[in-house]
Design goal:
By secondary structure, the protein is mainly α. Helix content is 77%, strand content 0%. It has a domain at 30-83.
């Protein structure tokens, strides 16, 4: 039976893959806040799963992914047109 951390890790991977797939088929835009949000949450879920089964290189990759996604999210929300 899967641990809670494994379930969150799998959900994070699925989220990131779906976001990338939607981007690849032009159903999502990379500069839209939703793309960055899905990537940010997905990366955080994977980081959480890595705290249960530690892997330094994967942790560094996902932590960087989360920081970059957070930057993209903030940037897209700041640039949102008003009204």
């Amino acid at each position: 039976m899967a641990h809670v951390a494994d379930i969150f890790g799998i959900l994070g991977v699925i989220g990131i893959i779906i976001a990338y797939f939607l981007l690849s088929i032009d159903r999502m835009q990379a500069n839209h806040w939703s793309y960055s949000l899905i990537n940010f949450i997905g990366a955080l879920f994977i980081v959480w799963s890595l705290l249960d089964e530690w892997n330094l290189s994967a942790f560094l990759m996902e932590a960087a992914w989360a920081v970059i996604s957070l930057y993209g999210l903030v940037k897209s929300l700041i640039k949102r047109p008003t009204a």
